[in-house]
Structure formats: structure tokens, C-alpha cells
Amino acid sequence: MRLNPTSFQGTDFVITEYPRPALRHVPNKSITEFDDTFQAKTQEMLMIMYESKGVGLAAPQIGLSENVFVYNPSDSKNMERVVCNPKITNYSEEVIVEQEGCLSLRSDECAGQVARSKWIETEYQNELGQKVIRRLKDFEARVFQHEFDHLKGILCLDRFPPEDREAAQENINKLLGLYTDSDASADPDEEEFNSMMPRPLSARYMPPLEEEEEEEQEQPEGKSGGFGGGGFGAGGGKKATKKKKETKKKVKARDGKRSDNPMFKKTGKTGFANRK
Fold it and tell me: Could you identify which of 16, 30, 102, 240 might form a hypothetical disulfide with 218, taking C-beta atoms 3.0 to 4.6 angstroms apart as the criterion?
């Protein structure tokens, strides 16, 4: 089973793992002081995030019941964000389904499909206390939603379809067994769970089927496609004298029977790297 680092240079904070109660605690305390002490704390959070090979880290993930998270959806430090007291004011109806894991669940050990809105509209304060209003899309929107969930006591496993939850249950049970204190908190707050947006998947999403379809396309005799001998710049433009069959793929959408959400007929990308 994957292990998180037991310590990080330059900080006393460590990754808080499921089922420690800090991960389920709500509500978290609002950030009101944006002083040097707070700035130092957010820098420690970023350092832990990078060293753990994550793309985001929320305060509950280091045992703090505070309304702040950090993230960076890119390889550039220019994209670092400190998010305080956030709100998501609007969710797109269109959702994208990708695989997600979480540092507090030992990443890929408890990963599964999660539906997130393709774009969101947000309001928050930055590390200086300045108000920020942004519209986020695609991967950055997914990361923001994942970290926002942490501030509501929600983990990605709460959004898994039943099949993925069942597949991860063995590792979930291992984490439960490793925590021997009596204050374990395995489940989210009921009100927060019922208000999650978008709603969790009721069944595992299946991508569109691909069917092979043969089409006839004229090709000049004696020429091969692409670069190299016989390709561009060789042989001139001869009249087509033969027909060559080329195989093309035609996408066929599923009928949605594996999910109760008809939007998954036109979306549902996969491949979210399990680095959360």
C-alpha cells in the first residue's frame, strides 16, 4: 500500500489520512488574518503539496479546521493559488468524468471515477485577503472542486459510483484498521453530502463504443502515404488507377443505460492522473 511521507523538511505538518476526524469536520474556521504567520503556513502547505506530488492540498489534510486550500494545476509556479473562504457560485450542467485519487486516501490505492462540472464560477480571497472572482474550466475547475470538497468534509470516495467504491473497499478497510483512536470519522456530514454538486455517479461511466467501418478512398498507384520514399516530393501526381480500402473508426454513443445521467452521452473524458 502506498505510503505518504512521515515528515517534511521545514514543517511539523504531515498528511492527515482517512478516517481522522479533521477530514470530516464542518464547518471550518474562516480566514480573517492574512499576516506573516498565515503567509508562512500557506507556503508550508505548498511545499507539502509539491513534495507529495499532489496538485492541491486543503487545510483539513494537514489537520487544520480552517477554510483554506492551495493548488497548482500546472508545472509552472506562476499558477500557484492560495484560496481562502471560497464559494462556488455556479456549476455548469455539463460534467466530465475522470479518475480521481487523494493524498489523504493514499492516492491510487483508493481511486475511482468522479463527475465534476466542466466549468465553475468562484469567489474567494487570496493570500493577501483580496477578493477574487474567477471562472475556471477543465482541469483547473476539477482541482478547485476537489479541494473545495475537503472544506465541506467531502472526500472523492463519497462521489465514487458503487462499483468503484466496492473495488476500493479493501484499501479503505486497511486505512480504518490503521487508525486505532476512538474518534474515527468514516462518513461525511449528512447535510453536506446531500448538497454535493454535481451529484455522485449512480453507476460507473462507460466511454463511447468504437465501431470499425470500411470506406473506399482513391490512392495514386505506386505512392505511399506519409513522409519518406514514395511520399511527398516523389513520383509527381499520377492519376488514380486503383482503389484502396482504408479502415476508419466511427464513434457510436452508448444509450446511457449504465448511468442515469443523459449528459454522459456527450462527455465523460477519462485519464485524470492519480496525483491528488
Answer: 240
Position 236 pLDDT exceeds 70:
no
Backbone φ and ψ of 195, nearest 5°: -100, 10
Handedness of CA 108, 109, 110, 112 (dihedral sign): positive
106-134 per-position pLDDT tens digit: 877 799 999 999 999 999 999 999 999 99
How many beta carbons lie within 10 A of that of residue 119, not counting itself? 16
pTM attached to this predicted model: 0.77
CA 118, 156, 21, 68 dihedral sign is negative
How confident is the model over 183-191, as a mean pLDDT?
97
| Positive/negative CA dihedral, 28, 31, 33, 35 | positive
Q: Is 163 among the residues known to form the active site? A: no
Contact 23, 153 (CB under 8 A): yes
Residue from 147, 166, 218, 246 carrying the catalytic annotation? 147
CA pseudo-torsion sign 104, 105, 108, 109? positive
Roughly how many angstroms between the first and final C-alpha of the chain, as a whole number?
16
Give the closest residue to 115 by CA, choosing from 263, 273, 217, 274.
Answer: 263
- Calculate mean pLDDT across residues 63-82: 96
